[in-house]
Amino acid sequence: MGHHSCCDKKKVKRGLWSPEEDEKLINYISKYGHGCWSSVPKFAGLQRCGKSCRLRWINYLRPDLKRGSFSPEETALIIELHVILGNKWAQIAKQLPRRTDNEVKNFWNTSIKKKLISYDVPAIPTLPDMHCNGNSEEGLFSLNENPNWILNSQQDQLYLPPPTPNLQGFDHGDLKLEQTNYGANLVQFPPPMAPPSDSSSYDPLWSLGYKPHENFDPNQEHQNFSSSGATQHYIGDKLIGPSIVTPNYDEDPLTVPMIPNPCEIINGNLCGMSYSCASLELDPLARLPYFLVGCNYPYDPHVPNNHVE
DNA sequence: AATGGAGCCAACCGCAGAACT
DNA sequence: AAGTTCTGCGGTTGGCTCCAT
Predict the structure, then answer these.
(1) Cα–Cα nearest to A161, from A207, A217, A110, A227
(2) Which class for A76: exposed (0-12), middle (13-18), buried (19 or more C-beta within 10 A)?
(3) Predicted confidence (pLDDT) per residue in A167-183, tens digit
(4) Cα dihedral angle (A26, A28, A34, A36), rounded to 10 degrees?
(5) Residues 61-80, chain A: which have Cβ under 7 A from strand B?
(6) Boundaries of each Myb-like domain copy (predicted)?
(7) Which residue is closest, via its CA, to the C1' of B11?
(8) pTM above 0.85?
(9) Which ranges of chain A have pLDDT less than 70?
């Protein structure tokens, strides 16, 4: 493997950073800022290339980083943003304060994507690239392009995303999501599950099938869930909402989540909403095929439907 | 206790585009 | 305008840790 040009000029250290190196970098940047990254290692006294310093700072040393596992809200947001943005990790990460693109990318690749694969979830195209012409396979994407399924890592259950946080200031290129609660009402949610009693084993994916308000902390940022009313969402100039009003599962626990037909999303809005889900099936996994009917996606009819334990 | 596989994540690489000369 | 350098991004990988056998 070759080295970046900035690393060719002199022998630079590679691999994991030592605490001493971290300290040097932190001290330098906190005093002088990073300025030109290529000159940082020289002035900071590091045998690293500028690129490595930049990466270390951005992904690890920055004081405003939030470390640790992703919250259910963050997870849901990642998945929903992935619908729109695909593997644009930097843009997705911008909507997750104090998270890095590397973190988001790793989380997706290790946690979410893997579970999707394990369930053989059919691929669903991202918005900009969908070709919903009824019989085309062009719209099929790799599994990591499929954002609509969330799996419960503890219970091996697959759920649809819950309402998601604000996307304030979401303006990346021609993509524009206005107002709040993007995607909050794109889907309806399965009946609530009892939370695990052992909070120490809490999994960030766990509550994704859970009623939003039960985990809702009004004092915490990015939890501005709203369980009522329609919300407008835009991609470019196109309105992709308002969408479905989240039902009250207390009243109707058998309501099957309604999932937008990708064909309708790509057409610029969600009007029509010819949802195919009419079953009273409670098993989230069993719902998978229904999502695909509307767009004639090939799917595995043998998707397991009794993984709920 | 030893070992091998899987999972996870920090860090690297190559590329593209922006900025600069 | 052309060449060079810098920055940012996405994909990939190496190595550490955990866990099952």
Answers:
(1) A207
(2) buried
(3) 444 443 334 443 333 33
(4) -140
(5) 69
(6) 9-61, 62-112
(7) A15
(8) no
(9) 1-11, 114-309
